[in-house]
Structures are given as C-alpha cells and as structure tokens.
Amino acid sequence: MPDKHLVFLSYDGLSDPLGEAQVLPYIKGLAALGWKYTLISFEKPELFQQHRSRLEQECLAAGIDWQPLPYTKKPPVLSTLYDQWRLRRHLRALYRRRPFHLLHCRGYITAREGLHWQSKGVLFLFDMRGFFPDERADAGLWKKTHPIFGAVYRYFKQQERAFLSRADHIISLTEKGLSIMQALLPSHGLSLKPCTVIPCCADLDLFDPGALPENTRTAWRQARNLPESAPLLLYVGSLGTWYMLNEMLDFFREFLVLEPQARFVLATRDSASPVFSGAEERGIPRERIHVESFARKDLPSAMAAVDASVFFIRLSYSKQASSPTKQGELMAMNVPVFCNTGVGDTDVLIERYNSGILIPEFSPEAYRSAIRQWQSTRGSGSAHLRQGAKLAFALQIGIERYNQVYLKVFNK
Questions:
Q1: Do the domains spanning 5-199+394-411 and 209-392 agree at the CATH topology level?
Q2: pLDDT tier at 378 (50, 70, 90 boundaries)?
Q3: Which CATH code fits 5-199+394-411?
Q4: Which pLDDT band holds residue 200 (cuts at 50, 70, 90)?
C-alpha cells in the first residue's frame, strides 16, 4: 500500500515553529515506513529564508518532495482566498504530472481542497487541529456581528459540517473535541465520519534528558548568569492571544513571595517588551526575568536547567479541542507544569500521569496553594513524567496511529 502518492497540505509553514514541531517529524516518520509524500506548505518570507536550506536537506534525506508556496498576509480574507486559488492551481498542475491518491489536509483552509478533490476520486483526510472558526471568533479576530467577518465565520461553520460529515477520516487532537463533534452533527441531520484522536506528540529522542551532558543544568545557568540554586520557572512559546502573559506574571509574583530567589525564564520568539513592562507594573525586579529565543534543538537544554514550567491558556469553546505542544515536551524532560483547568484533555492527562498542578482559578490564593503543593513534593523525583510522556505523547505512537489511519482509508 505505501506505493500510493500522498499529498500533505499545511497552511502553516514548515519553517514555522508549529511546522517544524508538528508537521515535519510525523511526515519523516511516515516516509520511513514507505509512504511517498509531496508536502505543500505556505511559508512566511523571513522564516523561510532563515531555515530553507536546512529544511530542504531534511526533506531530501527523508525522500519528501517539498513544494513550498509563499504565504500572503494582507489584506485579510482576500489574502487567504488568493492563497487558496494558488493552491488549487498548484494541485492541478501536480496532478497532471503525478496523480495523487490521498490529500492529507491539515486545518480548515486546506480542507476545502479535500472536498474538491474527493469529488474526483481522491481520498480526503481531515486533520482538523481544533475548531478554527471558533478560535478566530473567540480570539476577537472574527466578530460574529461584523458584516464581513461574521459572514466568513458562518461560511466556515458550514464548511466544518461538510468536512466532518464527508471526509474519509478525521483526526482530532483531543477526546474532548471528539465528543463535541459527535454531539454537533446530529442536530444538522449529519453523522461524524470515522475519527482518530492523536494529540500533539513530542519527539522523545530530541526531548531526552538522558541524551544531554551531566553538567547541562549548571553550564546553561552559568552561561546566562542565573544562580545555580535559584528555582527557575519556565514558559515556552508565543505570547498573547491565547497564552495569558499577565496572569503568568501574576503567578510569578506570588512564586517570588514563596521562593524569593526564583527567576522566570521565557523561551519565546516574541518581543520581550511586554514581558518587562508587565513585570515592572507588578513590582517584579527586571533581573528576575530572563527572555530568550531558542532554536528548537536548544529547547531540551533549557528545559533541563529549570525546576518547573507554567502555561495559562485563555478558556473558550474552541480551546476544548486544543493540545498544547509544550505539554508532551515538558513531560518528556521531567519538568512539572502549572496550568489552568479546562483546556482540551490537559486536565485528564496531568491527573493521569501526575505531571503537574492544576490551578482552578486566576487568583493569588489559588496560585499560592499550587506553589505550596509543588514545594511539598519538590525533590521527590520526577522520572515518572517521562514515562507518562512515553505513553501519552510519544512521536512514534502518533506516527503509527497515522499509519493505521492511512491503511484503513485505503482498504475501506
């Protein structure tokens, strides 16, 4: 069966952090099983130029035919329509040269092509990655009352029902998202097509504390003038929109009350200005904050040097379908997390694998209670976190689930 030609469509660029963490590792693993891929992604110019050579070499070595297209940012809506038109044209040309048998569509933007080509006999896998129209609305980007964005929202909700009821198979990031989909469609006289849950997996070979030098923690801290004995709290990822910087700074202020020597390390590619201005507003000394941008390959060393991590995600309907990439990576590095309740399957996984502390509300009292709970178990060992990551987030598990989905779709 692996002689079939698969086309993977991603509106996220391979040079984006998400593309590097949640597209390329899966495809490389599946290509190693014999699946033949053409990968089409939309690349942002600056990131593309920065990472192009390395990514081309990785794809070539894995036998992946990567065909990047330039991402169009402005104007809103029209730029996306233009990108979709270019994608349709590109696929037509590709099909004439080398017919493909399955479109693996990552997200809603590319899923329109899945429906189109399905009518021509091509199999359609909808890898939904969350409730996209509701994410845009919940973030305030598509106001439902706006004459244009409200219409765009309603259009994508209509398309969502078509994707879910017509795709040959569906991938959901969370069990909670799957249950919402199962309840959503019957009210419209539709039924959900077969669905497999695959969370955002972690590359356990990259995120492996045992693969790092023994002095990593000390050397990493010394290189940044961070005290050897100070508790380090880590945040990894982008700031704003969904990740609640102000609340995380509030949390760190309470952390300092109970751990006066602590430092807050933020590993982000975003501007540090909001971090330092927010810290100043809260009376947090500037020297207690460290902001740095890391290449993905350097994140394991940063994680090995800290004592705990925090991520707060704004609650909304759409976030029930979200799987934070950082959760599995932190677990793999034996780093316990502080996070709020109500996001995807995060609560269930933290409780199942005892991998952190859930915070039920954004208040000083809840923060201090969580910190004291962490203090009471600090030093008792955390190797069980990596074992939990192997069961819940191992990249090889995700690759094998995708492999089984492909086989089912082709053999149905």
A1: yes
A2: confident
A3: 3.40.50.2000
A4: very high
Quick check: 146 and 170 in contact, CB under 8 A? no
CATH architecture of the region 209-392:
3-Layer(aba) Sandwich (3.40)
Q: How far is CA 179 from CA 135, 173, 176, 184, 233, in A?
A: 18, 12, 5, 9, 34
Sign of the Cα pseudo-torsion (30, 90, 194, 347, in order):
positive
**In terms of pTM, does the model score above 0.85?**
yes
Reported as a single tens digit per residue, the pLDDT across 316-367 is 899 899 999 999 999 999 999 999 998 899 999 999 999 999 999 999 999 9
- Which long-range contacts (C-beta less than 8 Å, at least 24 apart) are formed by 142-149? 148/77, 149/77
DSSP-based three-state secondary structure for 39: strand
What gap in Å lies between CA 86 and CA 267, rounded to an integer? 35
Q: Write out the two tokens for 20.
A: 């590097």
- Nearest 5°: the CA angle 238, 239, 241 is 110
Can you read off the two tokens belonging to residue 228? Answer: 């050897």
Please list the residues that pair with 243 across neighbouring strands: 240, 313
Query: CA angle, 319 as apex, 318 and 325 as ends, to 5°?
Result: 135
Question: DSSP H helical segments within 63-139, as ranges?
Answer: 78-97, 108-118, 132-138
